Each structure stands twice: as structure tokens, then as C-alpha cells.
Amino acid sequence: MNDGELEQRYAALGVQPGVTLEELERAYLKKNFGLLKGRTGSATEANPQLEAERRALRDNYDRLADHLRAQQRAGEGTVVRRKPVLPAAHAAPPTVAPPAFTPLPVPVRREREGLAIFAFDSWAVNTFVPALLLAFVWVLGFTFLGPARQGPTVCVHEFGHATAAWFSGWHATPLPWGWTPVEPVHSNTVYAGLLFLLILLGAAGVKERKIWPVLIAVALIALQFVMTWRVSDKTKDFWVVFGGVGGEFALSTLLMLAFWVRLPDKFKWGAVRYLFFLIGAAAFLAIWQRWRDIYPGREEIPFGSMINGEDDQNGDMNRLMHEYGWTKFKIRRTYWLLGWWCWAALGATWLVFVLRLDRVPAWVAGKFGVGQEAES
């Protein structure tokens, strides 16, 4: 090899001329381990570029090692031979250095961090855990803890009113004792604040290469624009009124559907999603069982309000009848059907993950450079 080629091979291994065989071997193993450590994907996934880099690194090492051995042999040939001196009888036998060798590289496997039950890509978790949690909450409703489900139901009810108001650009304050004051006047602060949060969600999804936060942010920004700028105040008011019981169905279902969604890492969603699923399941089962009895007439429609009682004419059901012309049958049928639509959404989402169809959006997004980040 000429001097130019030697310099290139020394530079590739990060060593200087005059290096020993042992130092050269350590440099090679360090470089090779660095390539394996920086590898992306699973341990068994093919990576042609990585294999090419490793072959080039091994070739540089072999050529330099042969060059250094040739230099050693040439140096030994010029050494003046002297008469050997016999060691003393009590002297220890000379130690023989082990021959230099190049061990085969050991594949490095990236272990998953955290518990498997918090993994988003676990088929068993996505298939069985939601059904088990839902069954657990359903059975819990038959015990002395059953009335405790009223707490999540009230909170979700008030957030249903508030969510419709926020997306309409109105001030709203959901209170846990069953009342949500709403100011039916456009507020730039409410609109800009909610828009800012949705943009942050989408930006975090793009940064972490997660497709679902991006899709959710885009859909909600579009919904906010339509509700704020394309809908009349009368229609906004209707959705605020309808959104009480409607929110109990819709928001509780969304809390459960979010179990399957891979949100940005800052949410710590792998573990937190269990808590939100339980809250959503408690609220959903309570409202579903109630309207399942209301629809055939086994239970009365909840007229009035929680604070002022059944005689309050400003209750949600009262306003639907008096201001928007709904009949009792329409009220019963609409919320009963909404409950079945929520069950259908849950079942369809569960089936998508059982059949692993959830990988399709990530695959399509990967074609445009917004792929879903591999879990480590």
C-alpha cells in the first residue's frame, strides 16, 4: 500500500501511524460497536447501509493489521541474533503472550424500556386490556362502589357543555357541582388559547414522528374554525345545550378511544391512559345504562337541573323541548342512538387494532416523512 492509502485507512479507524496491533484492534472494536449502537429499527431488521459500513471498516482493519505484521516480521529479520542466556534454576518460566486475534462482533439488541403493559405496539395489550378494564368497571357498578360512578359522570357532563362553548369561541367554566356558566359572546382569548394548544399538539407529533397527534390536531383545528366562524350563535347555543348529555357519551368514549392513541412523550401516556380509560368507562357505562332504561320508558327523562331540581325550566332537556322543538320521543331516541354509535366506535377501533390495521396510517405518513417513531 502507498502512503496515501495508509493515511486513509488510519483515518477511517481513527488511529495514528505507529499504532500497535492491540491498539488497532481496540480502535476497530470501538468503531464497530459504535455502528451497531447507532443502528435504528429492531435487532433483526435488515440494514444494507450498516452492513456496507461494517464491511468497509473490517477491510480497513484487516489491511492495516497485515501491514503492521509485515513490519514486525521485517524488523525481526534485521535484529542481531545473540547467544541465548539460560535462565536460573529458580527463575519463573517466561510468559508467552497470547496471539492477537479478532473476535467476532456480537450483535447488540436494543431492549425495550419500561413495562410491557405500557407498550403501545403490544398486540396483547391493545386487544385484551381495554375489554378487561371495561368489564371491571361494569362489574364494579353492581357493588357498593357503584354510586361512585356519579362523580365522573357529572364532571364529564359539565365538560361536555364547556367543550362545545370553547370550540365556539365562548367563555365557559365547568364546575364539579353540576353547573357550567357560559358567556355567549365571542372571545379572541378563548379562540387563540385553544388554537395555540392544538398547534402545540400537532408540532409535538411532527417532532416525535407520531402520526396520530398530527391528525387529531388538524381535525380539531378545522372543527374549531367551523364552529367559531361558520356557525350561527343560535346553533352554537344548541350544541352547548345538547353537549351536556351528548358530552357524557362522546367525551367518555373519546377518553376510552385515546387508550390506543400514541400521544407525545411529554404526556407520559403509556401509564396515564389507564386512568383516563377507567374514568371514561365509568362515565360511559353509567350514562348508557341510564338512557337504555329511559328509551323504553322504564325511567323518566331527566328534566330540570342538578342545582335547582326538576322544576328548573333552564335544564338541558327543558330547553331542548321549549326552545328547539324536540319531543320526548326525539330526546329518548337521539341519546339512545348516540350511545349505540359510541359502542360501534369502540368496537370498530378495537377491531382495527386486533387486525393490526392501525399500522396503515403510519405507513402512509412514512411515505411523506412523518413516520411513527419506533418504540424503544
Question: What can you tell me about this protein's structure?
Answer:
By secondary structure, the chain is mainly alpha-helical. The chain has 2 domains: 3-75, Helix Hairpins (Orthogonal Bundle), CATH 1.10.287; 122-366, no CATH class. The chain is 60% helix and 2% strand. It contains 12 helices and 2 strands, in the order αααααββααααααα. The chain has helices at 3-13, 21-37, 48-77, 123-140, 150-167, 188-207, 211-229, 233-257, 269-294, 316-322, 328-354, 359-366, and strands at residues 170-172, 182-186. It has a two-stranded antiparallel sheet with strand order 1-2. α4 packs antiparallel against α11 (328-354), α5 (150-167) packs across α8 and α6 runs antiparallel to α7 (211-229). The longest helix is centred in the first third of the chain and has 30 residues, at 48-77. The protein is elongated and about 110 Å long. Mean pLDDT is 83; it is low at 40-44, 106-114 and 372-376.
Integer tally of domains = 2
**Proportion in helices:** 55-70%
Percent strand equals under 5%
pLDDT < 50 runs, ≥5 residues: 40-44, 106-114, 372-376
User: How far apart are the first and last residues' alpha carbons, in Å?
Assistant: 44 Å
Q: Walk across the major sheet and give the strand order.
A: 1-2
Q: What string, H for helix and E for strand, traces the elements in order?
A: HHHHHEEHHHHHHH
Alpha-beta content class: mainly alpha
Would you tell me the overall average pLDDT?
A: 83
